[in-house]
Design a protein that fits this description.
Number of strands of chain A: 10
Distance between the termini of chain B: 42 Å
Largest interface: A-B, 30 and 24 residues
Largest sheet of chain B: 4 strands, mixed
Pfam family, one (chain A): ABC_tran
Order of helices and strands of chain A: EEEHEEHEHHHEHEHEEHH
Oligomer: heterodimer
Number of domains of chain B: 2
CATH superfamily of chain A: P-loop containing nucleotide triphosphate hydrolases
Radius of gyration of chain B: 31 Å
Shape of chain B: elongated
Order of helices and strands of chain B: HHEHEHEHEHHEEHHHHHHHHHHH
Bound molecules: adenosine-5'-diphosphate, magnesium ion
Strand content of chain A: 25-35%
Structural class of chain B: alpha/beta
Strand order of the largest sheet of chain A: 6-7-8-3-9-10
Number of strands of chain B: 6
Organism (chain A): Caldicoprobacter faecalis
CATH topology of chain A: Rossmann fold
Helix content of chain A: 25-40%
Number of helices of chain A: 9
Protein name (chain A): ABC-2 type transport system ATP-binding protein
Distance between the termini of chain A: 35 Å
Number of domains of chain A: 1
Keywords (chain A): ATP-binding, Nucleotide-binding
GO molecular function, one term (chain A): ATP binding
Strand content of chain B: 5-15%
Shape of chain A: globular
């Protein structure tokens, strides 16, 4: 009971006539990587945006560390960080300025900012280029910068929307390793991906989502066993058939 | 508070771009340039007009006539030469634009009241303002000669009378009345000056409004495109502070733009004031009529412009919420440009006061109309109109902030989109 950090219950979201979510429920435990996997348009981003306090649900409830999303969005914002999919940073700022700008929102004292920046530098792995404008960064560098900013403050819950999408194998691998490391240090992660294979290695538990509904939740191994499949992609195919 | 200044700093940094600085410098430069042109045109008009004269009549009277011309403000250059053909040839080759030839025996004939014709040769080398100005000079020269000759004639025959009294027995005095103030002077001159002073104001005012909103809109569009807005909306800072920081940053930049605008405007007015100082009489008249900007007037005009910029920025942030990327930002700015264009065009080609009441009300409802009409109303002492305009813009601005706050505190900041014929994926 105590080790559950996020409770999502019967979440619904309509965009006008489109029913993007039709009753989504799941829980994220402390210190785990929980992944929402499903095809494009399944409702992953919508779910994450609601949890990240960006969208208000049409129906259902979200509870983060005992705080209700509708009543206490401010409290939730203090405990989470959100990495939007395909996001960028302010192109006219240098990488370092961007990190400092974001760090200032979470720091309680000036030393905190330095500590966050130090952590961020370890994550991005390029110290010199941090003095350059973000506009000059490659896609992989930008993604690492944004991941660094999402993890450097060691939030209770990091919400990462498609953290590796569009990146090459090496960059994806590095990002997955960084995520794993931070979970060891007590950060819980809620992430999404349409790449079901990579999630197999990364996540502790997955929820398979399609058409705004969750079809299955469980550890990857348990799901594969249950559907006697080699990988999660096959599990998904069995489920939608 | 620390979080807010952090945010404000970023917003300002984002707005003060190289582009902005260049365009502000450009504005000052433009004002300065126009002011200078005006000043040099005015000086040119004040200079003596150059004419070349080939005098075949070597008499005392014709010399007196030329003295009279030079007294009337013409600069006489006498040409030497054997005959007329040679003088014309010389003028042709030496870039002389206007040659006056006084024929042989001109004054002798004149004394018998048989006038010989004076020949004027205009050399047209290009079709421009100067060539038509030359034609006007010919007329002026001839009419001046006629005046001199007829005055001479009247003086010799009616020595007891002033020739001017014989020619124009009735005199008139011109008065200009503006509100309660009356002064002696020509209405045509006064309105000419005021008109020429105010003709460029709308152009540059429009540029400032359109430019600063474009700037804010592209900053918003970039925030949307890069999803930095999404990130910002999830950090622990209240939505109201985000809106206020955006507004404050835009206002700061708007204030700087308005300040620079006023600075340029003073340069520009300096060009006219120089002109008026030279002709002391006109200067006195303008002063008497209160048709000069006092420091206080500059401040009032500045406030009016500043509020218009604020309204534009508030509207822009609302429009900015609806854009998805830089490209749609360009489409989105159009309604705003229309709103600015309407008072702009009307103030250029017509007088807002002369429009019918419903049209007038419609125009007054556009907040941007007010600074366009402010400068004239300030000159004319209609401060009430200007202050109501300022009050109205303030109210509009407060409403806009309120709407912004509402939008930012709901989903709409992310889901509100206008689509222009584009289909959803
Ligand atoms: N702002 C929006 N307005 C209207 N429909 C939307 C909006 N955002 C998402 N949708 C729709 O909601 C559904 C779920 O989208 P999304 O959550 O982005 O899926 P995913 O992230 O899994 O690809 C899709 O059908 C999408 O078209
Ligand atoms: Mg998505």
């Amino acid at each position: 009971m105590d080790n559950i950090i996020l409770r999502v219950n019967n979440l619904r979201k309509n965009y006008g006539k489109i029913e993007a979510l039709k009753g989504v429920s799941f829980e994220v435990k402390k210190g785990e990587i929980f992944a929402l996997i499903g095809p494009n348009g399944a409702g992953k981003t919508t779910t994450l945006r609601i949890v990240a306090t960006l969208l208000t649900p049409t129906d259902g409830s979200v509870e983060f560390m005992g705080f209700d999303l509708r009543k206490n969005p401010d409290k939730i914002r203090q405990g989470i960080t959100y990495l939007p999919e395909e996001a960028g940073a302010y192109k006219n700022l240098t990488g370092l300025d961007y990190l400092k700008f974001m760090a200032n929102f979470y720091a309680e004292k000036p030393q905190d900012v330095d500590m966050y920046i130090e952590r961020a530098i370890k994550i991005v792995g390029f110290k010199d280029r941090l003095k350059d404008k973000v506009g000059t960064y490659s896609k992989g560098m930008t993604r690492k910068l944004l991941l660094a900013r999402a993890l450097m403050t060691k939030p209770k819950l990091a919400i990462l929307d498609e953290p590796t999408s569009g990146l090459d194998v090496i960059n994806s691998l590095e990002i997955r390793e960084v995520i794993r490391e931070f979970v060891k240090e007590g950060v819980s992660v809620l992430l999404s991906s349409h790449n079901m294979l990579e999630i197999d290695f990364l996540s502790d538990r997955v929820a398979i989502i399609n058409n705004g509904q969750i079809l299955e939740i469980g550890e990857p191994k348990a799901l594969k066993d249950k559907y006697s499949a080699d990988n999660l992609e096959e599990v998904f195919r069995r489920l939608v058939q | 508070m620390r979080k807010f200044t952090n945010l404000l700093k970023k917003e300002v940094k984002e707005l003060i771009t190289f582009q902005l600085i260049v365009s502000l410098l450009f504005t000052i430069g433009l004002f300065y340039f126009i002011g200078n042109i005006v000043q040099s045109e005015v000086q040119k008009a004040g200079e003596k007009r150059d004419i070349h004269v080939f005098n075949l009549d070597d008499s005392q009277e014709s010399k007196a006539l030329l003295d009279g011309l030079s007294y009337a403000g013409f600069k006489i250059n006498l040409l030497e030469g054997k005959d007329k053909a040679e003088a014309i040839e010389y003028a042709k080759n030496s870039n002389i634009n206007l040659l006056i030839v006084i024929p042989e025996g001109f004054s002798e004939a004149a004394s018998k009241f048989q006038f010989k014709e004076i020949e004027a040769y205009s050399f047209i080398r290009s079709f421009s303002m100067t060539s038509s100005a030359n034609a006007a000079i010919v007329d002026q020269v001839i009419s001046e000669i006629n005046k001199l000759l007829s005055n001479n004639f009247l003086k010799t025959n009616f020595p007891d009378f002033n020739p001017e009294d014989i020619k124009n027995p009735i005199k008139s005095r011109d008065f200009v009345v503006i509100k309660d103030i009356m002064a002696e002077g020509s209405a045509a001159e006064v309105s000419n000056i005021v008109y020429s002073q105010s003709i460029f104001i709308p152009v540059i005012l429009m540029m400032i409004i359109v430019f600063s909103s474009q700037m804010v809109l592209s900053a918003m569009a970039m925030e949307k495109q890069d999803k930095t807005l999404e990130t910002l909306l999830t950090v622990p800072i209240s939505r109201n502070q985000i809106v206020i920081a955006k507004m404050a940053a835009s206002a700061l930049v708007g204030l700087i733009s308005a300040g620079i605008y006023m600075l340029g405007f003073r340069y520009y007015m300096g060009g006219f004031m120089g002109n008026i100082h030279e002709s002391g009489q006109l200067n006195e008249l303008m002063q008497k009529l209160g048709l000069q900007f006092t420091s206080c007037d500059y401040v009032v005009l500045g406030i009016s412009i500043f509020l218009a910029i604020l309204c534009a920025l508030g509207l822009t942030i609302i429009l900015g919420v609806m854009v998805e990327d830089l490209k749609s930002a360009q489409t989105m700015i159009l309604p705003l440009i229309f709103l600015v264009m309407i008072p702009y065009i009307i103030s250029l080609f017509s007088d807002i006061n002369s429009l019918s009441l419903p049209v007038k009300v419609l125009i007054m409802l556009i907040p941007f109309s007010h600074p366009f009409i402010a400068s004239q109303n300030i000159l004319l002492g209609n401060y009430a109109v200007v202050f109501y305009g300022i009050l109205y813009m303030l109210v509009v601005f407060i409403i806009l902030i309120f709407i912004c706050g509402r939008i930012f505190s709901t989903d709409r900041v992310l889901t509100m989109k206008l689509r222009f014929g584009r289909k959803e994926r």
